[in-house]
Each structure stands twice: as C-alpha cells, then as structure tokens.
Amino acid sequence: MLPSYYEFFNPVKILSGNKALDNLPYELDQLGVSRPIIVSDKGVVKAGLMKHVKAAFDSSGMTIGAIFDDVPPDSSSKVVNDIAVVYRENGCDAIVAVGGGSPIDTAKGVNIVISENSDNLMEFEGADRLKKPMQPFVVIPTTAGTGSEVTLAAVIKNTEKNVKMGFASHLLFPKVAILDPRMTITMPPHITAATGMDALSHAMESYTCLQKNPLSDAYAFAAIKMISENLPKAVEDGNDEDARSAMANASTMAGAAFSNSMCGMVHALGHSVGAICHIPHGMAMSIFLPIGLEYNLEKTEKYVAELLLPLGGMEEYTKMPEERRAARTIVLVRKLQQNLYDLCGLPRNLKEAGVPRNKLESIAQAAINDGTLTFNPLEMDEKDAMNVLNEAYTW
Amino acid sequence: MGHAYMGKVLRVDLSSGKIQEEVIPDEVYEKYLSGLGLGAYMLYKNIPKDAEPLGPDNMLGFLSGLLTGTGSLFTGRWMVVGKSPLTGGWGDANCGGTFSPAIKRCGYDGIFFTGISEKPVYLSVAKGKAEIRDASDLWGKDAIETEEILLERSIGKKKPRVVCIGPAGEKLSLISGISNDRGRMAARSGLGAVMGSKKLKAVILSGVKRVTPHNRDKMKKLSKKCNKWVQFQPPFLTGPMTAYLGAMLRILPTQMVQDGLLYKIMLRKWGTVSMNQASIEMGDAPVKNWLGSNKDFGPKKSKPVNPDVFTECETVKYHCYSCPLGCGGICAIKGKTGGEFSETHKPEYETVLALGGLCMNEDPDSIFYMNELLNRAGMDTISAGSTVAFAIECFEKALLTTEDTDGLELSWGNTEAIVALLKKMIKREGIGDLLADGSKKAAEKLGLNSMHYASQVGGQDLPMHDGRNDPGYNLHYAVEPSPGKHTIGSQMYYEMYQLWKRVKNVPKFGLFSMIYHKNGKYVADETKAAFGAACSKYMGLLNGAGACMFGAFMGTPRFPIFEWFNAATGWNKTPEEYMEIGARIQTLRQAFNVKQGIKPGEVKAGLRALGLPPQKEGANKGRTVDLETMMSDYWREFGWDPQTGEPTTSSLDRLGIEDSKNNL
Amino acid sequence: MGKQYRPITPGKKWFKALVAKIVLIVLGRAFQSGARHDPDIKKEVSAWPEGFIVIMNVLPFGPRMALEKINGRLKYRGTKYDDGDLVVNFKNLECAFLVLTPQIGSAQAFAERRMTVKGDIAYAMAFTRCLNTLLTLLYPKFICKRLLKRVPPMPLKKLMVKVVVNVIGVPFGL
Questions:
Q1: B503 and B615: one domain?
Q2: Which of residues 12-51 of A touch C (CB under 8 A)?
Q3: A55-110 pLDDT per residue, tens
Q4: Between B379 and which of A325, B63, B168, B208 could a Cys-Cys bridge form, CB atoms 3.0 to 4.6 Å apart?
Q5: Are B442 and B534 in the same domain?
Q6: What is the number of domains present in chain B?
Q7: B476 and B425 belong to one structural domain
Q8: Where are any strands of DSSP class E within B509-632?
Q9: Which CATH code, of 3.40.50.2000, 2.60.40.1120, 3.40.50.1970, 3.30.360.10, is assigned to A13-182?
C-alpha cells in the first residue's frame, strides 16, 4: 500500500566490492578535485586501514592534502573547527572520511563549516538550514551498521554548551561511498555484532515506521535478508570477505531505507540510553529492537509478519501460519541476539549492558523528547517508556 | 512428656535401612509446636548447607499437627517438609485427608527420611513396628492403584492410612506432590520428586495410640461452641449467582471488611469451587496466563464451571479428619470422562481455574478428567495448569512451534491439546519433558525472553489468586520461605482472621474502618506490612497445630485456636506469646533459606504479576503493586534486614534461635 | 505571429490563507488558555525557559502565530515575532491547510515532511505533545481518532477543562 505522500532521496554513488577503494582517485577526478583531506580516527590507523587508503593514491597523480586522524569517539564542534583549519592551511579541495559514525559525522560538520565559510557550526543546526553548494565528499566506512555513508544527518557535540547538535540537509549526502571488504575485515567480533544489529534495527524500523514507502521497503527488505544470512558468519569468522561485503552492503541499504522513512521508538530509547549510560549505539539498538517491534505490533503486525521471509527464509515463512508470523519474526530477532551473545557476549538486555536500574526513569524522560519518536507508529508516553525499559531490563 | 504431642519422631535412613526413634525435648514443642515448626527445627538441624534436594542429604519429613487428635476441630492436616528441588530452599506442603492422626496413632509426631534407597521401597508401621519393604511391584503404578494395593495387603482391624507418590514423583517431576486418601495432594514445593528421588513409593501407617489433651472437657466445650458457628448455614445463592457477588465486589468503589462466615457458608455449600466465578469477576483469578481479565472470561464463559456444576455430580461429601465443615466431595464422572474414570475428588478452585480460565479452557468435563489424571499421576494441578498456560503463550508468541510440540496446536482454550500436553508432561515425553518441572525451569531451558511469560516466584508457579487485586498475595508469594503460596496471607485473609479481637499490637479494623475505599488497598504502607507479618505468624501457628485455614477464616472469636492450644497442652500462654511462636517458626524457615543460599531479596514474581505494565482493561485495570516497599516493610516487621531479608542476629537472639546463628 | 512568452504572476489563495489565519488565532488563544487550565500542557510549559518563543509559520510569508512564555505563563502574541526559539514551518499553504483544518495529524505531517522544525528537538517534542493535548480539548473524539496515534481518556476533570477552553479560552483568551 502506498502512503498518501512520501519523499525519497538517495544521491550517493556506491562503489562496492573487490578493490573498490582503488577507484577513489578516479572518483575524485570525476568530481573535479585532486587534494582531499582525509578525516579519520586512531582506531582506523591502529587497525592498519590507513595504508590501504594511502596506497590507493599511489601513482594517481593526486596529493593527499592532509590526514587528520584524531577524531574522538564523540565528535565535537571543536574538532570540526580544528579540521577546518587544517583543511584551509593545506589548500584542500575535498573531504574523504574514513571510519565509523564519528569520523563521518565530523567530516559532514567540516563540510558545513568550509562550504558555508563560517566557524560557527551552531548557526546551521536543524533541518534544511544549508543553502550553499558543498565540497566534494567521499565516505569510506570501516564499520557496517551506522549507514552514515548514505544519510543526510550528522550529530555533533557542542563543546561549549555540552549538548548534541543535529544537522540534516540533503546537501550533507556524500557524493560517493566506497564499500571495500578490506576496510571492515579488522573489525572485532563484538563491534561487528553491535553494528550489525544497528543495521538490522534501521532496516526493521524503516519497514514498520510511519513513513515507510515502496522504495525504502525494497532497501530494507534486501538488507534484512543479507544481515540474517551474514551477520553470524561475519562475527564468527572476521576474515570471511563475502560476509563482510554483504554486511557492508546491508548496512548501506538499511541506511538508505531509514534515512528516508525515518525510525521510531527503538532509536528514541537507544539514543537516550546511549546519552545517559554511554552504552554503544549498536548495543542499545540490539536490546530494544525486539521489544520495540512487539510494542508496535498492534498496528504493524502485517509488516512485521512480512519480515519473516527475509529474516527466516522461505521454509520458516511458509511453515509458520499467518497469524503467528509476526511473533515468529520477533522470536528470530531474539534468537539472533542469543546467537550473538553466545558468539561474542553482545548484551541481550539492559542489565547485561550494565545499565543501573535507577537510571531507567531518566532514560524514559529523555526518550519521549527524542525526535525519532514522532515517526513511531504508536504513541509512547513516559509511563509506556518505563514499562518498555522494565521489560528490556532482564530477559 | 507433655500433653497433646507424642514427644518423639521416627527417623529412617533409606541408604542404610536403619530405623530409629528420636525423642524430642519438651522445650522444642514449646518453642516450635509440632507440625511445620517441628519440621523446621528438624530440617534446619539435619540438612547440611548446599544439600542436593534430590540427593541423599535432603531430609523429607511427614508431620502431624500439635492439635491433631486432641478433640479440637479443623485440625487434621498433615505436613510434608524438605528442601524443595523446585525453589532450592525451604519446601513444605500440607494436606487434609486422613494421614495426620495416623502418624500420632503410631506414637510419633513426625517421620523423617534421609538417604536414598537402592530399589523402590515403602515404609510400613504397624503394631508398633516399623519396617522398610520392597515396592518394586508398585513402582510405575498411579497413586490410587498404589493405595488400593497397599490397603488390600494390610491386615488388622483399624484401616491403615497411606501416602504415596504417582508416576510424576517417580519421574522426578519438580511439580509433583504426595497423595493421600485416593488423590488428596500435598502438592506444592515439588516434594513428590524428593520422595521419588529417595525411591520411597509410599508410607503406610496403622496404630492405636491415643493423644491425651490436658483438659479434655475444656476441649470439648470449645469445640462445641466452634461447631455451632460451623453449623450456622442459612440458605444461600444459586451457583451462577455467585458471579454477581464477584461483579459487585469489582464495581463498588468501597468495600467492607470481609467476614469469613460468609465464605464458610459458601465452602459448606459448594467447597472451594464456590469462588470459581466470583473470583474471575472480582479480579482475584488470573486469566489467560495473567494476561487477560474478567473481560476475556466473563460470566458466560465461566458459567460451565459455576459452583452448582460440581455439587450436581457430587455423590458424597468429603470431610477431612476432625472437620465439621466438609468442603470436599466425591464426584461421579463416568459420563464426563467417557468411562475412563468412575469418580474423582471434587476439583478444587485452584484446579478449576488453573486448568480453566488460565488456559482459557471452557470445557468443564475436561477439568474433571484432568483433575483425576493429575491426582493419579501425583502432579500439582496449580503448577501443571500454570505451566500449560506458559506453554500456550510460548506457542502463541511463536517461541514454540508445532515441531517442538509434536504437532500439538497449543492455542488458548484448545482442550484436546491441553489434555494431550498434560499427558505428555506426566510421562515426560517430548515437549512434556521440558514442561514437567514447572514454568521457570522450562523457561530457563527455552531461553530467549520466555522467562517473562512464566508466572512463577522463585521457581514455584503462581496460584490462582491475583496479587494485582489484593497486593497481600503478591507480598506473601515473594516473602514466604516456600514462595508462591496462596495459603499464607492477604488483606482479605487478615480481615477474616480477625486477629485484632484476640491479639494486641496488630492493626485493628474498628467500627469506623469497617467500610473503606478500595484504593487504600493498593498503597504500600506499613499497615500492609503489619497485616502481612501477622498473617505469616498466624499461619505458622495454624500449620504447627495442623489446623485448616478454612476454620480460621471464621475469625479468632469463633475459631478458638489459642484457647485450644492452652487446653490441649496445659500451657498457659497468651495469644501474643503464641504469635511469637509463629514468628519463630517463620524466622527459622527464613534462616533455613539463607543457610541454603537463597537470596530473599531476589525472590519476586515476574513483572506481569505485579502489574507492570498495568492491565488495560478488566477488574485490575491500571493497578501496579509496589512490591519492593512492601517486602522491606514486612522484613522490618520481623526485625530482619530490610534490604536483604535475612534474619538479623538480634532477631534470632530475641526469639531464642541460638543454634542457627553460626550458619548465618 | 509567434507565441509571446511573458512571466506569469501566480494568483492568491486568499480563502485558504484566511482559514489558516483564523485557525492559527483560535489555536493560539486555545493554547494560552490550555496552558492555564490543563495540567498536562501546564507541566510541559513549566519546563520551558522564561521568554521562550514558539512560532507556527506558513512558508514563505505567513500567516503565522507566536506564543511567548512571560512570567511563567504562555501568552498568545499574534504575529508579533517572525523568529523564535522554536519555529514550526509549514512548507506551503496547502500543507498548513491540511494540518489546520484538521485533515491530518501533526505526526503524519512531520512524517510526510510537510512540517519542518527549527530549534531544539526536545522542545519540539514537548510542543507536539501540547498540540496533541490541545486537539483533544478542541475537537470531538471521532476527529481526534484520525489525528492522534492514541486518544487519551477524557475523565470529568479534562472535560471541564475542555469546556473552559472552548467557552472562555478561545473567545476571550482566558
């Protein structure tokens, strides 16, 4: 069924697969630039991934304007400004982000500051506040989950006010995203698991939340199938290039889906737990996903039931009578959680994640003020949030 | 030796075959009475720390009550105690029937078993001689067959009395109980499995010893007066009309302090099934594995199990020993069961609701059938029903599929599937093996979030009284050393006991508080904790006496328990002193749990039973129970640690439980 | 003679603009009154800082409506401000008409991106909650069912607030 109205936009060129990274100079050339700054973090360098990026530029005639590899896990406006200074000093003309969610968001911030020629990021907080054309921007993700390579949003901490600023504009889309299996192969199992569940939550929420649409559905559906088939493999054997590649693709598809259809209470709760208890985002997503699906079942049963096909496969789908398909989908998500718990200890509930019980109330308060809740199919007030958190506390 | 009690117990070591008598000092009776208290005293002393419940170190005791055989009324209950394999802590269950006086007639207050026999055996005590006999031919027989065979074998004028286990206990099902008099069950705490683990199939007793109360005339006088109240039986409603009684209790915003005489009248007329419909309507009976409400199982659906249905097929009333009330009965069920069984004990309220509303089962004939099936198997009907409901919910939530259930379509109210599942549980076949140990153990094995669907506390499945309707139940489900029992206390019980009319220092209901707003029930304050503590102490007394709570429901002025105690024993104690004994029994049992590694603070019902999230419709709509506050207040009432629930040294000192301190 | 090409001046949707204007006035006054009488809205507003300005605006140039928190109370300010701490923009008059008449709820409008927000999202969420409460005070249940994800129960107390807001709130701004 079509929604009465929807918007869909995804202008990112995807390069995926074997030696995809080596096409980077060509793509930059197509964008008419030749002195990119590379924005990354220490983890990427430590994992030895930067050498692949540098090697891609060998014999390309291009110059790496600068490599900034000090992005902290919680990117901030100060880092953005620092990078902008480096960018200008070295006469760079494009931005290449290498890393997980934080370097990518930081790079988006840098792009704003440079393109709008301002040093005050705060001016542009909110939706659709950017007007000027942006610098060419390429993303090379090293995790498979956030989907930031195909989203129009960035979250950056304001160091002075100690609040998180959100930016959203179609201008923030990268021009190119490069999914090279080499770049995710070093990811340790527990991060693979958490980010993989993040991608699954993007896909499943996008398929069930208010602005689901035929285009986002197609992306989400395909992503779920790949995740259910490949996530345990990628966690079990990190060197499985096919599984890695599949996860990277799934994550990108899920990202494209949810950035257009938006997500719901799973993200609202996840953001809040992350902010208050500093639980990694993917881990929080994993914990809340089945509970969120269950909460909304009253309205979304049909959609959740449809997801049994990609998640469980044809046999599972046909064997299960129609009225229990939705429930089975949720059971399979939990089975996946259990599987990941057994493989790498990914927490299955808030207690295992180390959330103190007395924080639940403040998490509930924060969750109902999270913007993503608007797109949740059912209403959730503070009491409902509290009940959900109680349920998520133990298995 | 004092009066009323026999002063010794029989100890049987099944490993070595050694049988000996142990004399119990008089002061033990003064401190702990007999029954539950004596059981606590023996078990605390004799079961080592971390004893395996199904191993040789566990001690299984059968006890009579202090007042049994003294000429008092309502005091014929026997008790079985042991470390529970179901909850890992203190386990006890009690039952009416005929076994309590039989223990005393053999000259004992209790019989305690330790060790494990190599082959199946039974204990026979006859003509003052106890011996262990081979029971290989009985192993595998159901409880009623076993009893019939044993009685046939016996000789002598006086009919012997038997307790035994059925196939469920033999197969170590943790929800199995011990049967007496053709299927009356001491069902809870999984002590049938303990008996099964010891390879003890049965105990058969016959004896001629008599109990000598201190003042027989006084006993008679007291009992006569009490009996007058029991015989007060005005004409009452018809069965289906009880539903309206329940609906009234639900709809009215205010409530009157309950007088148990009304309940006595209903019990005498119908038995416990009198509350079938009323309970659903008022919100006392959980429906659909605690998910539903009276809206899901309204008067139309519950009409097939209205009280009259059970008295219509009742051929004879059943009175336990020394009971003038007779809430039991024998029902003819040949027509209802396709000829498979000819009669059964009248199903109890708990059975009807556990196998009925809790599973959304509307077929009354199936309930008679399952009642007899479970009695013969020796399985607890409450836990069995609750576990079936758990399985149905798991099936509905697609945690279990037809592949797991061997093709059974476990949907709500699917009677055929429910019966088939019970049979599998009894035989431990296929999915039945997973479910035969109660919902908690099943959830542990099933994994994922199935624990949320298990209606249990500390391993024991919850009975059919909803703590969201009367938070007192929830409190006792959690704080009772053998958790998950409905026979300890609640606000309703407290009102009916009318303790304030005999005992000082307990909360009073006076003329102006006779009618109160129902909202007050749901505020977790110190009064509720005081209700709870008083109920626990009083129940300790009743279980020490071997008394039935249905007698006690008439209230202390009509049920002279304290006076009986004094007349029977020759002691001269005040009601407060007796309540202190109740406190002592409770504390020792709690100390037993702590010794066995139970963390009382962690024993709580699942979120659903506490009203989290609150129900969206029905009698208990919007209600949540603040259990944690109630628990610590309750522990404070006993002088225990309000955070951990462990008895403090000072509380042990005050009650004179010195020997237990070293273990805490 | 070839066809002549000239710039075209678009017409004016004066009717829809008028309706939007009126509804915004009603909404503004109801908001002011609701913030005084309704406990839920009161609670939300009490968390806003003093001098907080909320604008509802139809792009590109009105009609619009402003609310300001003065002395702990929320006041309807007409078209006094054109920028505030929280600005809810309707992308065009048709969007505004859909939401204000009320044919679609705010959640749907946000989901379909007919409305955008400038400012702190947490305040936007609080404002949306107030708006939803206000809808239950202004409209009968059968309309609210279409607009809201969940229609809260209307106990006697709320019903009285509803009467107050409609009878003296909207006409007199009390």
A1: yes
A2: none
A3: 999 988 899 999 999 998 888 888 999 999 999 999 999 999 999 888 999 999 99
A4: B168
A5: no
A6: 3
A7: no
A8: 515-517
A9: 3.40.50.1970
User: Could you give the angle at the alpha carbon of B191 between the alpha carbons of B186 and B193, nearest 5°?
Assistant: 125
A389 token code pair: 């958190």
Residue-range domain boundaries for chain A: 13-182, 189-393
Q: Which helix (H) or strand (E) holds B332?
A: strand B328-332
Tell whether A288 lies on the interface with C, counting CB pairs under 8 A: no
Residue spans per domain, chain C:
15-167
Q: Answer yes or no: do B454 and B476 share one domain.
A: no
Please answer whether residues B165 and B150 qualify as being in contact, where contact means their C-beta atoms are separated by less than 8 angstroms.
no
Residues B489 and B585 placed together within one structural domain of the fold: yes
Q: What pLDDT was estimated at residue A345?
A: 94
Task: Look up the pTM and report it.
Answer: 0.93
| Amino acid present at A133 | P
What residues in A contact B401, CB-CB < 8 Å? Answer: 319-320, 328
Homologous superfamily in CATH for domain C15-167: SCP2 sterol-binding domain (3.30.1050.10)
Structure tokens at C113: 């991106």
> pLDDT tens digits for B41-82?
999 999 999 999 999 999 999 999 999 999 999 999 999 999
Interface contact flag, A166 C113, Cβ < 8 Å:
no
Distance CA B533, CA B637 (A): 6
Whether residues A210 and C122 touch (CB distance < 8 A) is answered with: no
B181 backbone φψ class: left, alpha, beta (φ>0; ψ -120 to 50):
left
pLDDT tens-place string over residues B169-217: 999 999 999 999 999 999 999 999 999 999 999 999 999 999 999 999 9
Q: What is the pLDDT along chain A (395 residues), one digit of tens a residue?
A: 788 899 999 999 999 999 999 999 999 999 999 999 999 999 899 999 999 999 999 988 899 999 999 998 888 888 999 999 999 999 999 999 999 888 999 999 999 999 998 888 888 887 778 888 999 999 999 988 888 899 988 888 887 777 778 888 889 999 999 999 999 999 999 999 999 999 999 999 999 998 899 999 999 999 999 999 999 999 999 999 999 999 999 999 999 999 888 889 999 999 899 888 988 899 999 999 999 999 999 999 999 999 999 999 999 999 999 999 999 999 999 999 999 999 999 999 999 999 999 999 999 999 998 888 989 999 999 999 999 999 999 88
Same domain, B515 and B552: yes
Distance CA A373, CA A365 (A): 12
Which fold would CATH assign to domain A189-393? Dehydroquinate synthase-like, alpha domain (1.20.1090)
What does the block give as tokens for A170?
């179609």
Residue C27: the pLDDT is 87
In this complex, the residue of C112, C122, C124 whose CB is nearest that of residue A211 is C112
The ipTM, to two decimals, is: 0.91
Average pLDDT for residues B583-603, to the nearest whole number?
93
Residues B405 and B517 in one domain: no
Torsion of CA A76, A80, A83, A88, to 10 degrees: -170
Residue numbers of the domain that contains B432:
239-461
Do the Cβ atoms of A374 and C126 come within 8 Å? no
Sign of the C-alpha dihedral computed for residues A141, A147, A153 and A156 taken in this order: negative
Residues B552 and B434 in one domain: no
* Amino acid identity for residue A116 in this structure: E
Q: Is residue B51 part of a domain?
A: yes
Tokens of B423: 């049979």
Domain boundary pick from B191, B206, B221: B206
Question: Are the C-beta atoms of B664 and B594 separated by less than 8 Å?
Answer: yes
